[in-house]
Amino acid sequence: MKISDFQSLMLEIYGIRDRARGPERTMLWLVEEIGELAEAVREGNNSKLSEEFADVFAWLASLANVVNIDLETVALSKYGSGCPVCKSIPCKCAIK
Ligand SMILES: [Zn+2]
């Protein structure tokens, strides 16, 4: 499954609800899920990590659908040729 296939799946499952909720409230759900992911990382809980990564990815795809962004296109456009700053794979930028 490609990223675009997953985004299309989210559109099929949740598209009507996501559009009705709108971008601002969908963004709030994404932020809440990121908070849950942060908690799973802090706890080092592997089963919770798996679940929260899935939720964050699903809400990211939902938000992208609401604002008409093709995640696969934008991700590959920015990162498909390597680091967008130094243009290298792997990145050769100074570690921050
Ligand atoms: Zn770089």
Give an overview of the whole structure.
This protein is mainly alpha-helical and 96 residues long. The chain has a single domain (3-79), classed as MazG-like (Helix Hairpins, Orthogonal Bundle), CATH 1.10.287.1080. The chain contains three helices and no strands. The protein has helices spanning 3-43, 46-66, 71-79. Helix 1 (3-43) packs across helix 2. The longest helix is centred in the N-terminal third of the chain and has 41 residues, at 3-43. The chain is globular. The N and C termini lie far apart (34 Å). The relative contact order is 0.15. The model has no long low-confidence stretch (mean pLDDT 97). Bound molecules: zinc ion. Zinc ion (ZN) binds next to loops.
Summarize the structure.
It contains three helices and no strands.
Strand fraction equals under 5%
- Quaternary structure classification: single chain
| Tally of discrete structural domains | 1
Going by helix content, strand content and strand pairing, the class is mainly alpha
User: What's the β-strand tally?
Assistant: 0
Write down the CATH class.
Mainly Alpha
Helical residue percent band? over 70%
Order of helices and strands: HHH
Describe the largest sheet: none
The whole-number mean of residue pLDDT values reads 97
What is the CATH topology assignment? Answer: Helix Hairpins
Architecture in CATH? Answer: Orthogonal Bundle
- At the fourth level of CATH, the homologous superfamily is MazG-like
* Radius of gyration, whole Å: 15 Å
Shape: globular
Q: How many helices?
A: 3
Distance between the termini: 34 Å
Which spans of ≥5 residues are poorly predicted at pLDDT below 50?
A: none
Listed once per kind, the bound small molecules are: zinc ion
